[in-house]
Amino acid sequence: MKRLIFSALLGLSLLACGRPFKVSTAPGFVPLDDQHPYGYEYRSTTPEGVVVAIRVIEEESRGDLDFWSQALTLQLRDVSGYALLSTKNVSSRDGTHGKRLEFGHDEDGKPYTYWVSVFSAQGRLFIVEAGGATEAFDRSRPSVEWMLATVKVKCDTIVSPVLASRTCNRW
Amino acid sequence: MRRASTLAFAGIIVAHLAGCGAAAKEAAPEAPRSFGPNDAVTRTANAAPRDREVDAAEQAYAKSAPASPAPPPAGQPGTTAGGMNATTPATTENKPKAEPSKEAAPSREFVIYTARFVMAVYQVDQGIAAIERIARENGGYLSIKKDREITIRIPRQRFDAAVGSVDKIGDVLHRDISAEDVTDEHVDLEIRIKNSRAMQHQLTALLTRANVKEALEIEKELHRVTEELERLEGRMKLLNDKIAFSTITVTFEPRGTTLTTQRPRLPFPWLSGLNLPTLLQLNEDK
Questions:
Q1: Contact status, residue B54 vs residue B196, Cβ threshold 8 Å
Q2: So where are chain B's domains?
C-alpha cells in the first residue's frame, strides 16, 4: 500500500515537472525546439518572422509587478530608446495578474513592434515577449493576442494537476 | 478710559497713514522699473566703464548732433534711444493703470528660447517629417536635418505652441527647455555700436580739417573703428536673430549613455538581455 502511495506521489510530482507554464501555439506559428541555450523556455515564429517567446526567471520573488514593469520600462525605454506606446493590465489564463508593455523601435530604419508582458507567480517571473516588423506584426496581431491569452502559469504544488491549478495563482 | 480709546483710535489712524506713505514710497520706484528699456538704461550705466574712452568721443559728438533726433520705429528690437525716451516721467504718468501686462512684455524681449527633446527611436522618418511640418505651420524653417536629429527655428511668439506640438509626436524621453536672458549683452552691444558710430562720425569730421600727417593717423583709427563697428553689428544681428527665432532640436536616440552612468545597475542580468534583436534571432538546437 505504502509503495503504491509513493509511486502515485512520484508520478504526480513528475507530472508537475517540465515547463512551469502552458501555452498554445496559434495556427500560422511554428514552435522551435530547445530554446534553453538562448534563454527561452518557449519560442515560436511565423514565416514572416513574428516571434512569441517566454522566459522564466527562477527564484525571483523579490519585487512586485510594479517594480518589474518599472524596471523593464527603464531598461527598454530609457536605456535602449524603445518608445513606450501603451501599458495594459493583463491576466494569464489561470488568473495571474500581469502587465503588458507595448513598445515600438526602429531596426535598420524600419519600424518594429515589441510587446513584453510580465507575470509574477510561484516565486518566478514569467516574461512573455512578442515582436516583429510592425507591418507583419499587425497582420499576426490576432494570433499573437490569442497565444498570449492561452499562457497559463502552472501551480507549483504536487496536488496541482489534481486541482487543475485553476485558482492557485489568484491567492 | 474714554481718553485711552481716543488715543488708540488716533494711533491707528496715524499708523494707517504711515502705512500708506510707506506703500506710496515703495510703489514710486516700481513704476519706471516696469519698463524694459529703463532697465536697459540702468544696465547701460553699469556697462559703461568698458567704453569710457568711447563715451568721451560720443559726448563730443552729441554736442554737434541734431538737438532732437528722430525716434526709431516703435517695437523694433535694439532701439535704446527710443527706450530712453519712453522712460521720461511724462510718459509714465500718461500710461493707463491697466497696462502693466503690456509693460511687462519688454522684459521678455531679449530672451533666447531653446528647447531640446530626446525621443525614443521609433518611426524616426515620420517623426522628422512631422517636425518639419510643425516648423512650416508655425511660420518657422528647417535649420539642420540629420538621420536622427532635426533642428527647426520658430518665431518666438509661436514657441510654446510648437513645443506643445513636438510633445505629441512621439515618446519623449527627455525634454530640456531654457530661456536665456540676454538683455545685458543686448544693451551692451547697443551702447558699443552707438559709441562706435559716434567715434566714426567724429573721426570723419576731424579728417576734413586735418593735415596729411594727421589724416594718416585718423584714417588708421577710422579703419579700426569701422572694423569694430562691423563686428559689433554682426554680433547684434546674430543676437537679434536668436531672440526673434527660438530653436527646437529633436534627437531620436536612447538616453542610455547618460542614464547607465547615473542610475544604479540592477543585479538582474536578464534585464539587459531583453531586446528585439535577441528575440528575433532565431536558432534551434536539435
A1: yes
A2: 35-64+107-259
Q: Which residue segment(s) compose the domain that A78 sits in?
A: 2-170
Does pLDDT of A128 surpass 90?
yes
**Residue A13 contacts residue A158 (beta carbons within 8 Å):** yes
Tell me the CATH number at A147: 3.40.1000.10
Count of domains forming chain A:
1
Is residue B259 within 8 angstroms of chain A, CB to CB? yes
Round to whole Å and give the CA distance between A111 and A132.
Answer: 9
Instruction: Give B285's Cβ-side CA count (13 Å radius).
Output: 9
B30 touches chain A (CB under 8 A): no
- Give, in order, the Cα–Cα distances in Å from B78 to each of B35, B190, B244: 14, 7, 12
Task: Read off the pLDDT of each residue in B138-157 and give the average, rounded to a whole number.
Answer: 94
- How far apart (Å, rounded) are the C-alpha atoms in residues B168 and B172? 8
The per-residue DSSP string of B149-161 comes to: EEEEEEEGGGHHH
Mean pLDDT along residues B165-171 = 92
Q: Quick check: B170 contacting A, CB < 8 Å?
A: yes
Chain A contact for B256 (CB, 8 A cutoff) = yes
Shortest Cα–Cα distance, A164 to chain B (Å): 31
A/B interface, count of CB pairs below 8 Å: 113
How far is the C-alpha of B112 from the C-alpha of B178, rounded, in Å?
Answer: 8
Q: How far apart are CA A44 and CA A129, in angstroms?
A: 11
Q: Which residues of B touch A107 (CB under 8 A)?
A: 276-277
Q: Which grid cell is A170?
A: 489568484
For B171, which residue in chain A has the nearest alpha carbon? A83
Beta strands in chain A (DSSP E): 21-22, 30-31, 42-45, 51-57, 83-91, 97-107, 110-121, 124-133, 152-153
Helix ranges, chain A (H): 2-16, 65-73, 134-150, 160-163
Query: In chain B, what is the greatest distance between 2 CA atoms, to the nearest angstrom?
Result: 110
**Buried/exposed B112-131: b ≥16 CB within 10 Å, e otherwise:** bbebebbbbbbbbeebbebb
Does the pTM exceed 0.90?
no
Cross-strand bridge partners of residue A51? A45, A131
ipTM over 0.85: no
